[in-house]
Design goal:
This protein is about 45% helix and about 10% strand. It is of the alpha+beta class. The protein folds into two domains: about 5-90, Glutaredoxin, CATH 3.40.30.10; about 95-225, Glutathione S-transferase Yfyf (Class Pi), Chain A, domain 2 (Up-down Bundle). Helix 1 (about 15-25) packs parallel to helix 3 (about 75-85) and helix 4 crosses helix 7 (about 165-180). The chain is globular and about 45 Å long. The structure holds glutathione (GSH). Glutathione binds near residues 8, 16, 37, 62 and 111.
Length: about 230
């Protein structure tokens, strides 16, 4: 028995990516099931993944995690916390209690915030742009991200000592900064580069490129080569 994770479009579904990184970046065994968000079968796939949840309880979003012993989790934050609790040896959170509290706070803020950036720059791991206009609200989100990242104690490529759930939750933001060519300072650029070089994320992107493109996510900016 292993975890089962239902995800959608790899190029576009940022919450799917977070849910998957919570497993894949920590080598937790899982079976992946894939659906497509704009496919007429999307709702049916969600219902089929969790047949015990019916009516208004039927899941509406991805990712969905099924525990080996049963039980469905329908939110990436719950997936992160549950996996960390079940696999303390895998180091999903930093081991130091203060660092762990800081990492939890970052993940919670990512889960509930940065809406201007998320709305203006939907994740699209297939294409990179240049000269993307940046609103004041998006700039404020980027400034906040840079400040939060700079306040982290990690000495290596990641926010804490070793890859943690905080990095998993910021991976889609790093992809937005890379893909939309958003200007950030050298330290944040190095952090984005670490994500671009991260093996699991590169593998996820490659597999996404093999899927059909969704024109909904294309923007009318000048394109450049993917930076990673
Ligand atoms: N709070 C949820 C958000 C999940 C979410 O919004 N997923 C998007 C894909 S990235 C989705 O399933 N959208 C389909 C829809 O809203 O119909 C989480 O953290 O997992």
């Amino acid at each position: 028995m292993t975890y089962e994770l239902l995800i959608a479009d790899r190029s576009y579904s940022s919450w799917s990516l977070r849910g998957w990184l919570c497993l894949a970046a920590f080598d937790l065994p899982h079976r992946l099931i894939e659906t497509r968000m704009y496919d007429p079968g999307f709702r049916k796939d969600l219902a089929a993944f969790a047949p015990e949840l019916t009516g208004a309880a039927t899941p509406r979003t991805v990712p969905l995690l099924r525990l080996p012993e049963g039980g469905i989790l329908s939110d990436s934050l719950a997936i992160a916390e549950t996996l960390a609790e079940r696999h303390p040896e895998a180091g999903l959170w930093p081991s130091d209690p203060v660092a762990r509290a800081q990492a939890r706070s970052l993940v919670a803020e990512m889960h509930s915030g940065f809406t201007a950036l998320r709305e203006a720059c939907p994740m699209n791991m297939r294409v990179a742009y240049r000269d993307v206009p940046v609103s004041d609200a998006v700039r404020a989100d980027l400034d906040r991200l840079e400040a939060l990242w700079a306040a982290c104690p990690g000495n290596g490529p990641w926010l804490f000592d070793g890859y943690s759930l905080a990095d998993a939750f910021f991976a889609p933001v790093a992809m937005r900064i890379a893909g939309y060519g958003l200007s950030v300072g050298p330290r944040a650029q190095a952090y984005v580069a670490a994500h671009l070089a991260h093996g699991p994320l590169r593998d996820w992107r490659e597999k996404g490129l093999a899927q059909a493109e969704q024109s909904t996510y294309l923007r009318d900016f000048e394109t450049v080569d993917w930076p990673g």
